[in-house]
Amino acid sequence: MTTAYPSIFPGLQFQLKRGDGASPEVFSLLAVATTKSFKSTSDTEDVNLVDAAAPTALPARFSTVRALVEDITFSGATDAENYKKLYDDQRTYVAHNYQLIVPGTGAQGGGIIALPALVSDLEMSSSDNGVVRFSCTLKGQGRSTYTLAS
Prior knowledge:
Largest sheet: 8 strands, antiparallel
Structural class: mainly beta
CATH architecture of one domain: Beta Barrel
Radius of gyration: 20 Å
Number of strands: 8
CATH class of one domain: Mainly Beta
């Protein structure tokens, strides 16, 4: 009997790119981003309903999806050029296009998650005179798309 193990990919291949806004748009690697996260959440409203046939039983929860919320968070070592781009993005109040590269072939699920997003949180810090680091949160504007690799 053989076991089918999943094909795990290295973090170096999970990349974050930022679009330049030109036409056609060119995406550049945010190489300083050493941690990357994509979070997709269903924003729900819950209600607890009583069963009319058994009014003394515990109510059952039912949820209604109100919105799909998608965010990208990332952090890493700071270089001035990339930090300045994010700093300026936060102050333009305009969504920019970002891509998360998911490694692998299309058959393996690899491809590109694309999301227009606003910079909502941007932080720069240093500890004990060490390397200057940053963290950033992007709030998705609209829906992401997931295009499988060709």
